[in-house]
């Protein structure tokens, strides 16, 4: 077309490596290098642009999980190993994101169980993992240490660092060479601030993935989109403190009114569709990892990404 | 009616059942510290009920008390109602104390050219051959003594009534006082014999918290007395908004009277110190914020605080002192500085006059920080201004151990990077009781430099030092151990305090940047930054830059002008030509409403970081911080 798709931008997005194969010192069957782009996604079909990764989210205590997913997956949700295995082989995810929801109870102290859950998922699937630690600052340090330790060499993506609690997770990531997710509430400045804080305690840029926080389509996603756009534009214009890949999780879509109140015959379709469109929009805004919870969303996203990447026109998304 | 007895003074007052202790104390003439205006939000009005029945929700306000205070029966005066006769102990720390007020003279030389002058004349008595009228005779005499042209002077009826008898009684030796008022020259006083050396004027900063008076000898051209006291309107509300609301409820005349009374008290103190008669004060120049000026003039301020925030007038006003109840010479005048908008008032115009930014080609940035902050950017061609709420944090409010610049307030701090032991000074050198705004800014900068806090203001609790600890609600840093204080408890700064300080500094910085962008100026274009306000003189400029309160420019280009309002009033008092420029300045200033600037919130968020999210705006600070970090490893 002869059109400059880089618009005079200078800064490429930094790369982050997730997962480690045997030759890289881990036990995964693949490892991914995300980031590296020098323009917006899906613009140039000839470039080396790789489609966003699709991560499937599971947890070790389904009480906290959306009912629609619990119903759809059935007994699987009670067995984190089987669930991870199915997500890998049947649903076709690129990564597994394990939420250690078991830690979200009063006075939780069974840290060894946390290590066991991570080990179980590591052996159930050979995909690279994202591990979400506790939500409680008091046990953060121990939980992250344990996760980091049992998965040493696997180059996990650990979640989630926030401006008011990032030291424990950063310590674990630094000690065991994992990467981490840096989440800020839908604001380019706050995203940058957290990245600076992490940099200043020694976390390298190629170990940070930005989570700009994903609002649900129809429930404020436009704010997320615009924050992501500003993050990406700043990065492409050379702001190295924002030049990291992004991760988005439209998990909130599964509990919105439209999904909850949908007729049972179409409820799954509604859930997956809503999650799909939110995820797709996040991918267009530049996210390198899209996380989903409804199994049917994985295929829809995969098809859309392929069609968009190949420029095959209107994708047949079902 | 029930009786409350206040200890330790044993002052008694009878009040209705259900009255709050605060109300009763105020009626008893006790000035209790109420930063929040009595809403139960600041926790500064702690008193101890020693006997009697009260109604107080201790649970709801428990965060303000230590264990020990609770045991002793502490409660908040504003939130405690009396249900019977009471015996109440008011600790010293709860009372408003003598305040250290910034007082400083002029640095530049200003020509003595006041708008009021006295002329001593010895007249020829009239004869049948020289029968010209008394007034003409007097005015010609004044003209001959160097006064204005006789035809241009006007004598009001009251003067005419006095002239004939006085001329004859004094054997035709009188002193006439001529003032330049908007209508021209006016004879405002006539005295027997030579009183021409007794001519005084007062320059006044009418602040919402304090009133400062400089008394000038307008013949010799020197300051003869300085005085200050609290603005008595505080009894009608701590902040401006509370007072405007008070005015709405038919309280305007009371507020007007209190403003005048506050000025009169200061005038009396200054006159007594100088040993002069208040009747020899012929002119009073007042620089006050917009609402204060309106209230002093008895103009309803209600419309200033509602959209679209317009003041009633945007020009200087001259009024007869007696119409405002100002206790100077009954025929003396009051000159009030013009106001631009709700927030840019006469005090800011006075700041501009005193720093001289409106006379220069290069661009200056003026920042006045008080309860609110005002920022002016510009030069002799153009000016932009804006204002906002800095929150009370920089004045010591909303900070657990924050306080005003009273005795015992820590006003300067450094921290030893190894031991984290603070070295500080307090006002009057007594044992510390709390921290002032300048002390807090020092503390914030030092905590950042010593890596105790991160750029977000979070305390690194991983550091092993007894001064860093986790309290029930927030992590905190112990500034002074209880035994070394004057209040018997540890003086700490909490993460929440730091958060409030960062929010305050962020709004100031964001306002500066918003103005600079509006005017297309970068920090490199700014030749000088002026700091005004009482806080200005005590402020450590380097630390203010380190925390990102102001844009970074070379430190030696940042100047404290101290109380610019009173300095500006001084200038306008002694030189009437300077006074003429005030209306021009007021008309030149464009006011930017920050609420209407979409970019402001963005600038604010990026400023909520130490010093700023965009580190390239603070190269010097960044270099210094990097060096400190390197040392720390």
How many strand elements of chain B? 29
Unreliable stretches of chain A (pLDDT < 50, length at least 5) are none
Strand content of chain A: 5-15%
- Please give the CATH class of the largest domain in chain B: Alpha Beta
The portion of residues forming beta strands of chain B comes to: 15-25%
Total domain count of chain B: 5
What's the story with the biggest beta sheet of chain A? 8 strands, parallel
* Count of alpha/pi helices of chain A: 10
The DSSP helix count of chain B reads: 15
List its salient traits.
heterodimer, A: 318 residues, alpha/beta, TIM Barrel, two-stranded antiparallel ribbon, 10 strands, globular, B: 633 residues, Ubiquitin-like (UB roll), Nucleotidyltransferase, domain 5, 5 domains, six-stranded mixed beta sheet
Give a structural overview.
The complex is a heterodimer of chains A (318) and B (633). Chain A has 318 residues and is an alpha/beta fold. Chain A has a single domain (27-309), classed as TIM Barrel. Helix content of chain A is 40%, strand content 13%. Chain A is built from ten helices and ten strands. Chain A has an eight-stranded parallel sheet. In chain A, helix 7 runs parallel beside helix 9 (264-285). The longest helix of chain A is centred in the last third of the chain and has 22 residues, at 264-285. The two termini of chain A are 31 Å apart. By secondary structure, chain B is an alpha/beta fold. Chain B folds into five domains: 2-94, Beta-grasp domain (Ubiquitin-like (UB roll), Roll); 116-192, Ubiquitin-like (UB roll) (Roll), CATH 3.10.20; 200-343, Nucleotidyltransferase, domain 5; 348-390 and 509-608, ATPase, nucleotide binding domain (Nucleotidyltransferase, domain 5), CATH 3.30.420.40; 393-501, no CATH class. Chain B is built from 15 helices and 29 strands. In chain B, a hairpin with a 6-residue loop joins strand 21 and strand 22 (422-426). In chain B, helix 5 (240-274) crosses helix 6, helix 8 crosses helix 12 (564-574) and helix 8 packs across helix 13. The longest helix of chain B is centred in the middle third of the chain and has 35 residues, at 240-274. Chain B is globular and about 100 Å long. The termini of chain B are far apart. Residues 98-103 of chain B have low confidence and may be disordered. At the A-B interface, helix 6 of A face helix 14 of B.
């Amino acid at each position: 077309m002869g059109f400059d798709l880089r618009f005079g931008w200078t800064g490429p997005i930094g790369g982050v490596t997730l997962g480690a194969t045997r030759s890289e010192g881990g036990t995964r069957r693949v490892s991914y290098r995300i980031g590296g782009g020098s323009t917006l996604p899906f613009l140039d079909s000839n470039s080396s642009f790789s489609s966003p990764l699709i991560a499937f989210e599971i947890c070790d205590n389904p009480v906290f999980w959306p009912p629609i997913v619990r119903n759809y997956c059935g007994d699987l949700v009670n067995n984190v190993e089987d669930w991870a295995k199915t997500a890998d082989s049947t649903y076709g995810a690129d990564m597994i994101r394990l939420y250690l929801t078991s830690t979200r109870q009063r006075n939780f102290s069974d840290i060894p169980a946390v290590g066991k859950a991570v080990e179980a998922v590591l052996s159930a699937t050979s995909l690279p993992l994202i591990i979400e630690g506790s939500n409680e600052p008091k046990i953060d340090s121990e939980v992250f240490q344990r996760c980091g330790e049992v998965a040493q060499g696997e180059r996990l993506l650990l979640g989630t660092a926030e401006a008011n609690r990032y030291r424990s997770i950063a310590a674990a990531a630094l000690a065991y060479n994992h990467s981490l997710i840096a989440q800020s509430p839908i604001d380019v400045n706050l995203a940058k601030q957290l990245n600076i804080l992490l940099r200043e305690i020694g976390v390298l840029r190629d170990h940070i993935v930005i989570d700009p926080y994903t609002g649900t389509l129809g429930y404020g996603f436009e704010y997320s989109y615009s924050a992501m756009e500003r993050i990406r534009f700043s990065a492409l214009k050379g702001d190295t403190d924002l030049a990291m890949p992004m991760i988005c999780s439209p998990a909130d879509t599964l509990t919105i009114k439209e999904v909850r109140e949908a007729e049972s015959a179409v409820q799954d379709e509604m859930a997956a569709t809503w999650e799909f469109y939110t995820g797709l929009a996040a991918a267009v805004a530049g996210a390198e990892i899209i996380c989903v919870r409804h199994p049917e969303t994985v295929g829809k996203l995969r098809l859309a990404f392929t069609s968009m990447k190949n420029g095959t026109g209107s994708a047949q998304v079902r | 009616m029930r009786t409350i007895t206040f200890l330790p003074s044993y002052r008694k007052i009878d009040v209705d059942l259900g009255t709050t202790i605060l109300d009763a104390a105020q009626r008893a003439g006790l000035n209790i510290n109420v930063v929040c205006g009595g809403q139960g939000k600041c926790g500064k009005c702690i008193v101890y009920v020693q006997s009697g029945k009260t109604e107080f929700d201790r649970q709801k306000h428990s965060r303000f008390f230590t264990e020990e205070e609770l045991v002793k029966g502490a409660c908040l005066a504003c939130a405690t109602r009396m249900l019977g006769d009471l015996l109440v102990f008011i600790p010293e720390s709860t009372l408003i104390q003598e305040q250290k007020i910034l007082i400083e003279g002029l640095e530049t030389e200003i020509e003595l050219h006041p708008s009021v002058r006295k002329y001593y004349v010895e007249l020829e008595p009239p004869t049948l051959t020289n029968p010209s009228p008394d007034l003409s005779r007097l005015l010609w005499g004044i003209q001959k003594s160097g006064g204005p042209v006789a035809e241009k002077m006007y004598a009001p009826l009251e003067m005419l009534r006095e002239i004939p008898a006085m001329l004859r009684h004094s054997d035709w030796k009188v002193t006439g006082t001529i003032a330049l008022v908007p209508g021209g020259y006016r004879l405002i006083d006539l005295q027997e014999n030579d009183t021409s050396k007794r001519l005084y004027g007062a320059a006044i900063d009418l602040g919402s918290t304090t009133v400062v008076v400089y008394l000038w000898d307008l013949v010799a051209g020197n300051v003869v007395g300085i005085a200050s006291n609290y603005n008595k309107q505080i009894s009608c509300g701590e902040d401006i908004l509370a007072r405007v609301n008070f005015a709405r409820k038919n309280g305007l005349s009371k507020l007007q009277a209190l403003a005048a009374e506050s000025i009169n008290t200061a005038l009396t103190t200054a006159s007594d110190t100088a040993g002069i008669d208040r009747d020899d004060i012929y002119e009073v120049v007042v620089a006050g914020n917009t609402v204060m000026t309106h209230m002093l003039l008895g103009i309803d301020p209600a419309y200033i605080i509602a959209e679209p925030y317009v003041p009633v007038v945007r020009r200087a006003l001259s009024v007869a002192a007696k119409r405002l109840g100002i206790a100077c010479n009954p025929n003396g005048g009051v000159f009030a500085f013009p106001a631009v908008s709700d927030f840019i008032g006469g005090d800011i115009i006075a700041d501009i006059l005193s720093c001289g930014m409106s006379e220069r080609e290069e661009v200056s940035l003026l920042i006045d920080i008080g309860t609110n902050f005002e920022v002016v950017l510009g030069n002799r061609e153009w000016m932009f201004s804006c204002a906002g709420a800095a929150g009370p944090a920089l004045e010591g409010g909303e900070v657990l151990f924050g306080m005003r610049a009273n005795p015992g307030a820590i006003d300067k701090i450094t921290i030893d990077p190894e031991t984290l032991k603070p070295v500080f000074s307090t006002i009057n050198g007594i044992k510390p009781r709390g921290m002032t705004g300048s002390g807090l800014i020092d503390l914030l900068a030092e905590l950042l430099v010593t890596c105790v806090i991160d750029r977000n203001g979070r305390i690194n609790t991983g550091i092993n030092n007894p001064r860093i600890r986790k309290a029930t609600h927030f992590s905190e840093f112990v500034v002074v151990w209880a035994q070394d204080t004057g209040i018997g408890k540890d003086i700490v700064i909490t993460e929440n305090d730091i958060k409030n300080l960062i929010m305050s500094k962020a709004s100031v910085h964001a306002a500066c940047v918003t103005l600079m962008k509006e005017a297309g100026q970068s920090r490199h274009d700014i030749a000088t930054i002026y700091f005004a306000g009482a806080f200005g003189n005590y402020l450590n400029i380097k630390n203010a830059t380190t925390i990102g309160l102001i844009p970074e420019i070379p430190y030696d280009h940042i100047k404290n002008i101290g109380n610019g309002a009173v300095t500006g009033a001084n200038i306008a008092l002694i030189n009437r030509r300077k006074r003429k420029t005030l209306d021009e300045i007021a008309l030149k200033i464009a006011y930017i409403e920050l609420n209407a600037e979409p970019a402001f919130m963005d600038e604010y968020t990026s400023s909520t970081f130490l010093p700023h999210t965009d580190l390239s705006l603070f190269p010097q600070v960044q270099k210094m911080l990097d060096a400190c970090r390197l040392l720390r490893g």
